[in-house]
Amino acid sequence: MAKKKTVDTIHTFTWKGINRKGLKVSGELQGESALEIKAELRKQGVNVTKTQKKAKPLLSFGDKITPMDIAVVSRQIATMLSAGVPLVQSLELIAKSNEKAPLRLLMTSIGNEVATGTPFSQVLRSHPRHFDDLYCDLVEAGEQSGSLDTIYDRISTYKEKSEALKSKIKKAMFYPAAVLAVAGIVTMLLLLFVIPQFKDIFEGFGAELPAFTLFVLSISDFVQQYWYIIIAGIALFIFLFKKAHRSSQKVKDNTDKFILKIPVISTILDKAAVARFARTLSTTSAAGIPLVDALVSAAGASGNYVYRTAVNSMRSEVMGGMQINVAMKTTGAFPDMVSQMVMIGEESGDLDGMLSKVADIYEQQVDDAVDGLTSLLEPMIMVVLGVVVGGLIVAMYLPIFQLGSVVG
């Protein structure tokens, strides 16, 4: 049995040689060893004079395989399969045409394994970092039903919608976080470098300073003495929180519950969780995956502990014979409109179609809410910046104003 190539065993080699016409040629090829590269080039009529393994760059953040890359590849596979191109050939074409080296190696590895007769879904399961259980289950359903092209069209649509929704959520979170970070940096700079200059001036006044000015000066003194402890404390808190969030399920669950209580932001996250749930359940239902199994995937895809718990509770009720719309109402986590549309879908026999409409509605609501949030936050952030920075400036000029009135 031929040895399967994996991403780890495939390397990129640079080569130089002479072709049939006696001309010097060079290029790059991928393979397991220099011998394999030479053998491939000899088939093409090239007499190889030099081969060298190409070193991997130390920093290659731009080449990292992202979920959006997987969404694009999924759409490419769906298009080729629907056009009648065989799966192995589709994978080879995608691997050759891709510009990202890690993704090119991944698709080459997958294509080589599928070419040996290994089921496509089984090959994908060996790369859980890029293809989750839901993705692999859908592919397996397509293989078993003989409709992989149809299933892949649904997979690609699901991935595209999912990544678009994630992008909207990141947009909603990034803007206020970035502005507040800049405000914090500006405040620190003022306290460290600007206010101390005023303090030197005030010492020559020989008069009692206003309470507000004394308060700001004391803050400035504290920051000057312990700025490194403050920065280290903030960095340590972020590091420990990230570590605890990765390793502790309890921390993840409590964080999920907390963010659903943040004003304005919670509305967007609620709608996003409902959209992810509906989109996932619609895709799995259309693929023919049993409802009880589909709810497991939908629970994980919801992306929040509160909704994950609610969907798992629904699953238990459905296993007991309850209709999904009734089970949904008992959780109290989903809006009435969603449970009503699910009920109509169940009664009409078009549950996947109705869930798809629910997902479309809530994805649009998330989009509108993100735009509204940006418009709402801009004046609020300006007010916050004005109060913080303006307050510091006023505190420094109060003694000058008082001195002017005394002199007058």
Write up this protein.
The chain folds into three domains: 11-55; 65-162, Type II secretion system (T2SS), domain F (Receptor-associated Protein); 163-408, Type II secretion system (T2SS), domain F (Receptor-associated Protein, Up-down Bundle). It contains 15 helices and three strands. The longest helix is centred in the C-terminal third of the chain and has 57 residues, at 351-407. The protein is flat and about 90 Å long. The termini are far apart. It has a three-stranded antiparallel beta sheet with strand order 2-1-3, covered by helices on one side. Helix content is 74%, strand content 6%. With 408 residues, the chain is mainly α. Helix 3 packs antiparallel against helix 4 and helix 13 packs antiparallel against helix 14. The chain has helices spanning 34-43, 67-82, 87-97, 101-115, 120-125, 133-145, 148-202, 211-247, 249-259, 265-286, 291-301, 305-319, 324-331, 336-348, 351-407, and strands spanning 11-18, 24-31, 47-53.
Descriptors for this entry?
mainly alpha, Receptor-associated Protein, 15 helices, disordered N terminus, 3 domains, 408 residues, three-stranded antiparallel β-sheet, 6% strand, single chain
Low-pLDDT segments, ≥5 res: 1-8
Overall CATH class of the largest domain: Mainly Alpha
Number of helices: 15
DSSP E strands, number: 3
Rg, please?
30 Å
Topology as a string of helices (H) and strands (E): EEHEHHHHHHHHHHHHHH
Residues in β-strands, percent: 5-15%
Question: Considering DSSP H and I runs of 4 or more, what fraction of the residues is helical?
Answer: over 70%
Class by helix and strand content?
mainly alpha
Ends apart, CA distance between termini? 99 Å
- In total, how many domains does the architecture comprise? 3
The name of the CATH topology of the largest domain is Receptor-associated Protein
Mean pLDDT: 83
The major beta sheet can be summarized as: 3 strands, antiparallel
Which outline best applies?
flat
CATH superfamily of the largest domain: Type II secretion system (T2SS), domain F
User: What is the second-level CATH architecture of the largest domain?
Assistant: Up-down Bundle
Physical arrangement of strands within the biggest beta sheet: 2-1-3
